Amino acid sequence: MDFDPEQLRNESEVESKLIAQFLLPALGYGPNDWHQEVALGNIRLDFLAFAIQHQPFVIDGESPLSLTIEAKSPRKSLDGFERRLQQYLSLLHARYGVLTNGRDFRIYCLQDRDLILIFRCTGREIAGKLATIRSTIGREALRNRPHLSEEPTAVAPAIAINPQPSNQLRDKTMKIIAIYHNKGGVGKTTVTINLAAGLRNLGHRVLLIDLDSQANSTFAAGLVKFQFEEDDDLKDCNVSHMLASRDEYPIEQVVRQSQGFNSPEIDVIPSHINLIEKQYKLDSIAASRSRLLGKLRRVTDRYDYVIIDTPPSRNFYAQVGVISSQYLIIPSDLKPFANQGLSNVSSFLQEANEYREDKNLAPCKLLGVLPSKIATNARFLKSTFPKQKAAIANIHHLPLLDSIIYERIALSKSLNNTEEDGDCDIPAPQSIFEFAKSDVSANSSASEFEALIHEVVKKTQ
Ligand SMILES: Nc1ncnc2c1ncn2[C@@H]1O[C@H](COP(=O)(O)OP(=O)(O)O)[C@@H](O)[C@H]1O
Ligand SMILES: [Mg+2]
To answer: Which ligand is located closest to the Cα atom of residue 452?
Structure first.
């Protein structure tokens, strides 16, 4: 090696100097045996290397895919990426994955869906340990080893490499989840947008619906980049238009793609400040309450998850949000005011469920109260927090989610991110996952959201 892997400056140098120019050739992979920046459904892999090459390559039960390599910036710890690697490997039915940031080099193996670390060394040690690395993930070694999908436990549906979402993730029904609390500032919008982004990162097709006239989710998704009123392109086509008519403004007409928010981006039904002035009229027409339900019914084969952000009130839009949903998450900072509001939320849910029952719909199920914006101070976490959590069960008789979203500056920084445009800075909000790609301080929040997403996926199955 004529360079020091521990001196690599950024992700792109790790990719080019360490992986493409040194590691892959040293492991016996020729230029035709590996691919960089591969889009596989919604997954973006840094490197895919094949022990046996077929053209065009299709990943199925006979998959020749053997190795995925993910390169990270030297500034990032690899710990936060293990879960994603595990997901990639299980989705692709690949057995081996490498994670490296130049300083830390790790080889993982997937066994019964568990990610096992089988080899680790520093960047400087790679050259000296090449024989060992080659015997594990070298091209010759893999050619002579049965592929994961040939083993009896593996079930590998075929997915072809193309930019469309993979069918593999399509399970049965679209899930509709409302995020609601009648108190403001408890983290509803922060939870909504990052839950939506994280589900999308797992390959699910996600629709985010903003029902709050403050349009914070719409802003977060990068849809409010205009500086002047005359450039406002949301005013005449937003969620209120969908609620104002049964047949006009179907979802496909109103939906936008988020902009610079996440990769992959998500679908968004935007809100607008003019929801306030439209509320009175919509509220006076009984049918407008069920219109979102009706329109969602027409896209059940197009989305896996619909996540609805709601206003901090019991108003018409909040009612529409909860009566249209099969599941409810209540973010709460667990402080006295938020807790006192919980009995309101419970009665609000009951009323929404009366409505759903009248429409022959199963009740909206409360997934739980989600502790959100929780201080990380050790004394608080030891003494006060357990009592606050106990009060949710004992006093309010509500279930708690296991996941916790801590109060972390990175969450507000990701939303307030800007980019230069000529002389001025324009808003460039990002999901916590996108933000974490360039700022290590976001890793804890990203992992906490990943845990939440897994809990939500599990509890809505
Ligand atoms: N976990 C968190 N850590 C730090 N700041 C947060 C967190 N959750 C929300 N915030 C910040 O608190 C404010 C209110 O959050 P928001 O998600 O908009 O709440 P809501 O939608 O309930 O009104 C925002 O400025 C947001 O950036
Ligand atoms: Mg909000």
So the answer is: 1
Closest alpha carbon to 297 in 250, 241, 362: 250
Taking the C-alpha atoms of residue 195 and residue 190, their distance in angstroms, rounded to an integer, is 8
Architecture of domain 170-459: 3-Layer(aba) Sandwich (3.40)
End-to-end CA distance of the chain: 49
Q: Say which range, 125-129, 159-163, 381-385, 420-424, has the weakest mean pLDDT.
A: 159-163
Of the pLDDT bands very low, low, confident and very high (cuts 50, 70, 90), residue 166 is very low
* Residue pointed to by tokens 């046996």: 52
Q: Which residue minimizes the CA distance to atom 25 of ligand 1?
A: 412
What's the pLDDT band for 154 if we cut at 50, 70, 90? Answer: very low
408: its two tokens: 């972390």
Whether the Cβ atoms of residue 177 and residue 329 lie closer than 8 Å to each other: yes
Atom of ligand 1 nearest to the CA of 331: 22
**Distance, CA of 297 to CA of 326 (rounded, Å):** 12
Please choose from 403, 412, 413, 432 the residue to mutate so as to test ligand 1's pocket, defined by most ligand atoms within 8 A of CB.
412
Kindly report, as residue ranges, where domains of CATH 3.40.50.300 are found in the chain: 170-459
**Ligand 1 cavity residues, CB under 6 Å:** 184-190, 216, 312, 372-373, 405, 407-408, 411-412, 415
The helix (run of H) or strand (run of E) holding residue 389 is helix 378-394
Take atom 14 of ligand 1 and give the residue whose Cα is closest.
Answer: 185
| Of 397, 323, 314, 316, nearest in space to 354 by CA | 323
**CATH match for 5-160 among 3.40.50, 3.30.70, 3.90.1570, 1.10.3470:** 3.90.1570
Task: Give the pairing type, strands 175-179 and 305-309.
Answer: parallel
Q: Which of 109, 115, 104, 142 is nearest to 27 (CA)?
A: 142
pLDDT of residue 150: 42
Cα(265)–Cα(258) distance, integer angstroms:
5
Grouping H, G, I as helix, E, B as strand and the rest as coil, residue 439 is: coil
Residues of the chain with CATH 3.90.1570: 5-160
- Residue 445: name the closest of 417, 400, 405 by CA: 405
Q: Above 60 in pLDDT, residue 454?
A: yes
Handedness of CA 120, 124, 125, 131 (dihedral sign): positive
| Listed residue (448, 338, 440) closest to 398, CA to CA | 338
- DSSP 8-class letter at 111: E
